[in-house]
Amino acid sequence: MKRLVNDGYDVVEEMLEGYVAANSSYVKLDEENPRVVVSKVISKEERVRIIVGGGSGHEPLFLGYVGADFADAAVVGNINTSPAPDACYRSVKAVDSGKGCLYLYGNYAGDVMNFDMGAEMAMEEDGIRVETVLVTDDVYSAKDKKNRRGVAGDVPVFKVAGSAAARGYDLDTVKTVTEKANNNTYSMGVALSSSTLPVTGKAIFEMADGEMEIGMGIHGEPGIERIKIESADKVIDEILTHILKDSKITSGDEVYVLVNGLGGLPVMDQYICYRRVHQILEEKGIIIHRSEVGNYATSMDMVGLSVTLVNLDEEIKELLDYPCDTPYYKIAKDSKFRFKK
Amino acid sequence: MKRLVNDGYDVVEEMLEGYVAANSSYVKLDEENPRVVVSKVISKEERVRIIVGGGSGHEPLFLGYVGADFADAAVVGNINTSPAPDACYRSVKAVDSGKGCLYLYGNYAGDVMNFDMGAEMAMEEDGIRVETVLVTDDVYSAKDKKNRRGVAGDVPVFKVAGSAAARGYDLDTVKTVTEKANNNTYSMGVALSSSTLPVTGKAIFEMADGEMEIGMGIHGEPGIERIKIESADKVIDEILTHILKDSKITSGDEVYVLVNGLGGLPVMDQYICYRRVHQILEEKGIIIHRSEVGNYATSMDMVGLSVTLVNLDEEIKELLDYPCDTPYYKIAKDSKFRFKK
């Protein structure tokens, strides 16, 4: 195992301890439930609070986006495991300001069950209204959009919600615009290796050297087929073909692009792949509003990447670009990316 | 090979093409020399210009720090290879505003030779004064500080230079404060694997599964010894013992900390390691001003990390925290990390 950990059973607690120590100006662990990461720079205004979460092993997702004007709290599960219901519930109590909360997470059965229990407890015990938007961006995971899994599309969808809350929208409006953002968000990935589980020291699944699987999910959910590793351009061509067909994004549409490294893929390769995404979109007359390339939603040491497109309208675009400040996502008021290119 | 590339000989050009496309609001390739990445948001003031560079394969170093109020240009070599002298020269012509330029790069023989030639050409051909500060932070690479290699300490040392130039200091003053920052910067790394060369499809050096080498350089330069992978805490204990002994950083001193992933190490492990760094520094009464954790200076897909400490005085601290805006380094004027913790 090529990991740097201590006891494999302690990785989440130790990671959290390190995370809040390194980012202590932004976040703290909740005093009552140490699986809830809470913003220390939360707005003093009464606002809808944004709560994100899911299993560990996808860092900087989810906790990296807790800060100012993005997520207000993250609920943390064990590796690839949904957070416990009491942590989901506690996150609401920790941040609610009287305007209700929005839960946001990728669509996985365990997460749905436990966050739903948290929302029920908040309503029953405290009368706090909690709504939910499931992120369902992985185009290859199901035919029906609402049954799809959430992958790196989490990041832009969360961002839209955080900005909507920061603008003072009420809970129904935050939910509506976030649902629209999710409906416009499409991702597909490729894996060249499995991630390694710290407890067993083993890969989650076997993948021979020189093999890859397009369409594979971030926990190893099956993709199209296991084939020899192809060139970056061929891989991106295939991914974009699926995304464009499914999304119906076409000439004249404007998009946000995220090329997301899964943890073990060099930045160099991410940009070689981005280059091809950019070429294809330009060839097709699709307008690129903004692009991000990097490790935003990982699967520990998995080698691979995903491509996400968000089909923009003016409202989503403004919310995606709204200023925020978290350890892993910063948009300054005078940020240079707003300059005309 | 678990890489996503096209022809191995094209990786640098394709990476650059993707990089400037994705970050086109910040940077462009120089029209005359496409191995020079130039800021599009360069200050309109006449200022000392900061030029960084070195071999490719360390992304986001060097080009990721070109933008506003940090580096003004980066000169790009092939993988693990210094940039050509004409590219070094051209970078000066591309950005000089009449106040001279400072070259900043890690201390490697090829880089020194080629950047020095670039500086001579700038003086002889154009009368532009170019000074140099070599970054020499790798404590294990040589006994004498001035003979040491530059590793992730590049990032804070570059930052100090960029801030000093942004404040309008003259070339001698920028150089002096940058030298001071370098003299106060100490790093040491550990590698659990080699990086993979795209042209050969092979590792640069062999390292068996389950092995590691503390003190190894980012191109595979030899470390202390090849041993079985130890726990994160033991690895950090050894690294910090070397750094603290060499730097003489002690109780009451104030430091900036960078835990830098080398490309293939999960964020989770980086924070588990940061946790131990934080514990040790707190135990010793060393004051942590600010910490950063992430992939800042990588070696493609190498699994490993380095720890960097910068011993701070008020001047270096202010310059490290000075606002800037680049694709991979952003400090907003109202950044939350400035809040009292």
Description:
2 copies of one chain form a homodimer. Chain A has 341 residues and is of the alpha/beta class. The first copy, chain A, has 2 domains: 8-183, Rossmann fold (3-Layer(aba) Sandwich), CATH 3.40.50.10440; 185-338, 2-Layer Sandwich (Hypothetical Protein Tm841, Chain: A,domain 3), CATH 3.30.1180.20. Helix content of chain A is 31%, strand content 24%. The first copy, chain A, contains 8 helices and 16 strands. Chain A has helices at residues 11-22, 85-95, 109-126, 154-166, 171-183, 232-247, 267-283, 314-320, and strands at residues 27-29, 36-39, 49-56, 73-79, 101-106, 130-135, 185-191, 196-197, 202-203, 211-214, 226-228, 254-261, 287-294, 304-311, 324-326, 329-331. Chain A has a 6-stranded mixed beta sheet with strand order 1-2-4-3-5-6, with helices on both faces. Chain A has a 6-stranded mixed beta sheet with strand order 11-10-7-14-12-13. In chain A, strands 8-9 form a two-stranded antiparallel ribbon. The termini of chain A are far apart. Chains A and B meet through α1, α6, α7 and β13 of A and α1, α6, α7 and β13 of B.
